[in-house]
Amino acid sequence: WYQRRVRGTPCGPGGCLGELAENLAIIFLGKQIMNNFQELLIPMFKSWWSRRKSNQYQAGTDKEQIAISVTTPWEADNDLAEQENLFPEYLEMVIQYGFATMFVVAFPVAPLFA
User: Is it the case that residue 34 has pLDDT exceeding 70?
Assistant: First the structure.
């Protein structure tokens, strides 16, 4: 009732392929932009923040500077970024593969954006 009353006919004579393609484009491009933000900018910010904290920690007297500059490899490794779980990454790839294969007819450039 709502679609016919407010929007008119739910689909044109050719079907809803155009609306489906539009929605898929929004999904694929939106996810790509959000993932780039999440995977590039956030780690860069975390790295900058840890370097900033490390520089504040190292600011001290000359003897403290010498003691801090001579660190063992395992102490240097402790300052690296934490490794995250890879399961969400694989899950995202599987979901994108499913979207791309299921809707390639409606949105032919979907594999390019996946």
Answer: yes
Mean pLDDT of the chain: 75
CA dist 54 to 29, 69, 71, 75, Å? 37, 11, 13, 12
Q: Report pLDDT digits (tens) over 58-74.
A: 555 555 555 556 667 77
Residues 6+ apart with CB under 8 A from 16: 10
Q: How many CB atoms lie within 10 A of CB 78?
A: 9
Identify whether the C-beta of residue 58 lies closer than 8 Å to the C-beta of residue 66. no
The amino acid that residue 68 corresponds to is I
**Alpha-carbon gap, residue 21 to 9, rounded angstroms:** 18
Full-prediction pTM beyond 0.70?
no
